[in-house]
Amino acid sequence: MNCPICKNPEYQELDYGGYFYRGAEYPLVSCKFCGLKYILNDLSDKDIADLYQEEKYFDAEYAGGATHSYEENKSAQNKKADFALKFISHFKSGGKLLDVGCAGGYFVERARDKYNYEAKGIELSEHMVKFAKSRGLDVHAAHAKQRLGVGVTIWR
Ligand SMILES: [Zn+2]
Predict the structure, then answer these.
(1) Which domain holds residue 94?
(2) Which long-range contacts link 101-105 to residues 24+ away (Cβ below 8 Å)?
(3) Is 153 domain-assigned?
(4) pLDDT tens digits, residue range 20-76?
């Protein structure tokens, strides 16, 4: 599989591990040219859309190397969000921000509440969209191919 952004075929596997799905492991890799981190897989768009509809997708059992579920991991997620948002703020403080693949919206929530961004998210998982909306976040079920905004983060 080539890098989804720059199409470079060379990558290196990362220590984090990867994901388990239907008996197969899909490693997390980093593109040797542009540094994009992506899941090495041969799944179709439909397979991926189906995967994200499984409620347990965000539980630790799917993520190799993860020991806590998404919800149990909020404080660690917020630390990563703070790191990224402080960096982003150097270039653009406030304004619109779209988190592509926002899961349950912890990054969107942090960007909105602590850094004053007009933050929105898109996510394939209907389950995670419901979780985000239940907390008042502007998050929608969509694929990145369908909706892109002004500021974009690709966050894992
Ligand atoms: Zn690349």
Answers:
(1) 71-141
(2) 101/144, 101/154, 101/155, 101/156, 102/128, 102/132, 102/139, 102/155, 103/58, 103/70, 103/128, 103/132, 104/58, 104/70, 104/71, 104/128, 104/131, 104/132, 105/131, 105/132, 105/135, 105/137, 105/139
(3) no
(4) 777 888 888 999 999 998 888 888 888 888 878 877 777 655 555 556 677 777 888
| Cα-to-centroid distance, 130 and ligand 1 (Å) | 32
Q: What's the pLDDT at 16? A: 73
Ligand 1 center–CA 27 separation, angstroms: 16
How many angstroms is it from 38 CA to the middle of ligand 1?
9
CATH of the domain at 80: 3.40.50.150
Ligand 1 centre to CA of 84 (Å) is 20
Per-residue pLDDT band at 149 (split at 50, 70, 90)? very low
